[in-house]
Amino acid sequence: MKDQIELSITVRGTVAEIWRALTDSDDIENWWSDDVVIEPRVGGKFKEAWVDDEGNKGLASGKVLSLQEKKNITFTWREKDWPKEAQTECTFSIEDQGPKRVLTVKHVGWGSLPDKSRAKIMKDFEVGWGYHLQELKSYLDD
């Protein structure tokens, strides 16, 4: 079974605009949510509060493990209702290809989740990341 989700988009925005969209709260709320915080420094916090289709409140949290300004940022991701030992890692990477930029999100560590729920959770995350990347693309390309 696969243990990672990796999705990429091509955007017209500059590297600086993409970086700001990933790390600035005012920008993040334009494509992700106003309830998402990513503090762009090692040890900085990541937090996403959300509500599912049934009205249940969720909370994801983690901390920034590494970053190279305007290149990549990696943070841990853990949902409040996951088993204690379950934790994943998410990396946003920006690749400047001259006339365009490629932004990739890579979410790994799914093996830490229980076998019985892993496939569904990964599918939900793959759909979610696809949606958020398209929102980000729309925001940056406008």
Automatic annotation (TrEMBL):
Belongs to the AHA1 family. Residues 14-140 form the Activator of Hsp90 ATPase homologue 1/2-like C-terminal domain. Pfam families: AHSA1. It comes from Bdellovibrio svalbardensis. This is SRPBCC domain-containing protein.
